[in-house]
Amino acid sequence: MSVDIKDKKIIEVEWTAVRGLLKNALLAEEIPCSSIEMRPKEVFKKYEHSPIFDGIPYGDTFIRMLRMLRKKQANGDLANETKPKAIEWRKSAAKQVLKGHFREGKISPNYQDAQEVWTEHCKDTDAFKRMQCDDTFFRRLKTVRDDYLKKVERCQMDLEAFTIAKKNHPTPKKNSRGEPQWNGSIAQNLLKEAVKLGHHLEVTPRDLWIKKKEYQVYSLQTFRDHIYQEQRLLKFQHYVGSLKKKKLSELQY
To answer: What is the pLDDT of residue 12?
Structure first.
């Protein structure tokens, strides 16, 4: 029977006990971090007569476990591996909560008392349960507020530039084919809903085009082009939605 097959027959609790022994030995410096100073086979020989090692084979499982433990010890993470990792502020749920509160107007950009902000919006909430109302929080709150104000200012500048551009270059009432502009039309709204519901998959573009008089304001070719456009937009929206869900799932609490 191969070593790998034997490894698979060792129940999890036995390997957990082996891991605990190796961890304690590394912390007590009975096993050096360097595999050059003591090879995995030598480590195994050192403890093979321990009752914990009874029935445990020397193989890939043991070698991988020892390598991982040595790496953690070398990085200084082994002793505290069961403790929650420190929250990275940029990946924290707390930061997203504060950003949302500023956007929604729950926290005024002109707040006067950071302690009051903590009490009203942060204290006893899941996102802030591992944080405290201290100088670090005050500094982070101010940074989020300042970033929000900068974005508001940029948005206002962009809006003003867009308004001027629209005024200087108004959108023609008709497209190059002499048809009414598609953007903002009733046909556009109807097609968006149809594509969202999957109606465009049930019939040909021509059959869908015939169903609504609003569609027939446009040529079949124009209509067909916009079906493909809406399909691409819907796929992109799903993609963005999946990215947002992924980002939310990775937030640290």
So the answer is: 84
